[in-house]
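This part of the workshop introduces the protein records we will be handling. An example says more than a description, so a record of this kind follows:
>
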Amino acid sequence: MHSDSVRLKLSELLDANARFDLAARGTTNHCPMALVALAEMGASPDRLQAFFDMWEREYALSAPPVDATISRNDWKRHVGEREAFGALRLCFLDWIVDAGAVPVITAVLQAVPFAPATQAFHSLIRLAYGIEAGHAGEIAAGLASLISSHLPIDVSLDKNPRAESADAGFDHAARALSGTVFAGSSITARLRAVASDVRFGTAVLAPPASAALLDDLARATIAAYWRKPDFTLLHTVTATRAARIVFAELHDSLVEQLLPGLWVALSAAYAMIGRPANTETSFPNIAVNWSELCQMAVASDDDHVIKMTYTCLCEDRRQPSPLYLASAARLFEPSKA
């Protein structure tokens, strides 16, 4: 974010986004996440406003009125209640104003099974963007989404062999359920179908013994996405970065408890879409640089293109790989995602 005017406009629009429902026409509410990514890639206040106006006109659904009050001592009774999103958001927002964001995030994640697959990973991603923007309302919305749409994948890893690497673990899950067509018109529905398949409990291995598991997951997810530019795999890349942002706010002992849940959710995504092609990684001649790609993303109205470009930019800065620039550049080719 390059100026106070951008920060002020972003905050104004994130506040205004509270009038939108968790769902949108044919999708979920990507607007606040895309706005943060746009701002970080250099969008002007006018461009942020234009994207918000486009989203409101073409995708947004009005949030239903919140008629009930949920107390901070009572929110756990509403896990999995989609209609409680608005009341949960207000509950968490009030709590954050009183106690600060990190204590509330910690309390919520400690209290319920970690479910990063919720809303096709968008609940976790929205929470991360809220943290990145320092916006209490969006942090509250991310937590409310995680709780109201809660999609845990209940798998015990205690007796399962340990994966030698992230790539090997994902490949094992994909092989075990190879050929299965999971019913559902959305990523969430198909992830739910994977979670209910009794074979998945043995298909998913325990995560590799690595002191840098998130880095291993980041390498594995971008490599798989490069080999197979599947829409679900795109979400594994953005979700892994989101987990990094959220986990950075938490105590190491809590992160250690949450990591297996992330591993299981990502493994479910791989089991759902099947194995990416096992081919040599080769790269085309990339004729654009990051500055040009960011300009192209800022001009786009495609929320997934915006967020994926930003994710690739940030991950490449942290752990450089030609896969990030190549994957981001491919987003702007015809018929690519």
